[in-house]
Amino acid sequence: MTSFAPAILTLADGSIFRGYSIGADGIGVGEVVFNTSMTGYQEILTDPSYCRQIITLTYPHIGNVGTNPQDEESPKVHASGLIIRDLPLLASNFRMTQPLPDYLRAQGVVAIAGIDTRRLTRLLREKGAQNGCIMAGTVDEAEALRRAQACPSMAGQDLAKVVTCAEPYAWREGEWALGRGFGEPGEAAFHVVAYDFGVKRNILRMLTSRGCKVTVVPAQTPAAEVLAMQPDGIFLSNGPGDPEPCDYAIDAIREILAANVPTYGICLGHQLLGLASGARTVKMKFGHHGGNHPVQDLDSKRVMITSQNHGFAVDAETLPGNLRATHVSLFDGSLQGIARTDCPAFSFQGHPEASPGPHDVGYLFDRFVAMMKERNNA
Ligand SMILES: NC(=O)CC[C@H](N)C(=O)O
């Protein structure tokens, strides 16, 4: 019988939760957010947008299917820690290569189980996102509290440049699909340059599966360098932190919009498109993190169930004349999608690529491809 070391979770408001460690020994600090997805813990942990955040999952049993190399959305776990109710005694799946605790330990990530995640989630909903600290192995409550209180606010942090790739690279996975329905087999119909602010792999897969050849570039690549690659379209990725301090990206996007190249943004990329167009962003009380968020397409009136992961939002009250609202959250009325009226650019706050979550918004990738096609034919 495995025995688990003690672990505690402290919050900046003074709350202490006691449980047991199911990850590495040590300390993790960050903004504690709750995610309501019922599946996809490995995609969530490896989503770079969770950098410097500690995730609590509201689904009570986490770890049932272990972990595998296919479900990683980036090369490593980006979350600062994981909080769960219960780790099942047995993990089993035909794809499993490692149980969740071994995977977390191998990556040096702290995690705590045995926590009343309902109480924790209600606290975060009532008080708003809180900074917290997980201490696992040797536990010192006073020190863990001090660390939670010393953790800097997410507001004002530029983390895109922390998680981005070091060098440009070509996304090769799924190249067999290039050309399907477009040019000759094996020949890409469009060249997309994707800004990596913390990109999830499934976004790149969704582009490739629609006939795009994708070049990924670091967050701080100047617009002139990207435009010199003569892309058919430019993609602005998801990513961690506050969009407002990413001035290098905002400046580059302004130049790209002026060049009239079709542009599509997701999550942080959406917020940056908003800022580059003159709108403002705000920090939300506890954000949206989950796989069951209803969003309405304001043009078709269709309601979709969407995957979400954001703590900031473009403020609908600040949209300039050349930016129109295209989608709205039916949970809280917050803005979920925008489109420029004067150039081919649009973006979505949630995650059309899912991973994990429903695929209802996948049509936005088709819209991007149609935009590139139209421009090439013009
Ligand atoms: N998934 C994302 O791209 C998140 C965007 C941003 N970091 C936010 O919290 O709102």
Strand order of the largest sheet: 8-10-9-11-12-17-16-15-13-14
Mean pLDDT: 95
**Envelope shape:** globular
Q: How much of the residues is beta strand, in percent?
A: 25-35%
Q: How many beta strands in the DSSP annotation? A: 17
Secondary-structure content class: alpha/beta
Separate helix tally: 10
Small molecules (ligands, ions, cofactors) in the structure: glutamine
How many separate domains make up the residues?
2
Q: CA-to-CA gap between the ends?
A: 68 Å
- Oligomeric state as shown: single chain
CATH superfamily of the largest domain: Class I glutamine amidotransferase (GATase) domain
CATH class type of the largest domain: Alpha Beta
Query: What is the third-level CATH name, the topology of the largest domain?
Result: Rossmann fold
Percent helix, as a range, is: 10-25%
Largest sheet: 10 strands, mixed
Topology order in helix (H) and strand (E) letters: EEEHEEHEHEHHEEHEHEHEHEEEEEH
Catalytic activity: L-glutamine + H2O = L-glutamate + NH4(+); hydrogencarbonate + L-glutamine + 2 ATP + H2O = carbamoyl phosphate + L-glutamate + 2 ADP + phosphate + 2 H(+)
InterPro entries: Anth_synth/Amidotransfase, CarbamoylP_synth_ssu, CarbamoylP_synth_ssu_N, CarbP_synth_ssu_N_sf, Class_I_gatase-like, CPSase_GATase1, GATASE
GO molecular function, one term: carbamoyl-phosphate synthase (glutamine-hydrolyzing) activity
Subunit structure: Composed of two chains; the small (or glutamine) chain promotes the hydrolysis of glutamine to ammonia, which is used by the large (or ammonia) chain to synthesize carbamoyl phosphate. Tetramer of heterodimers (alpha,beta)4.
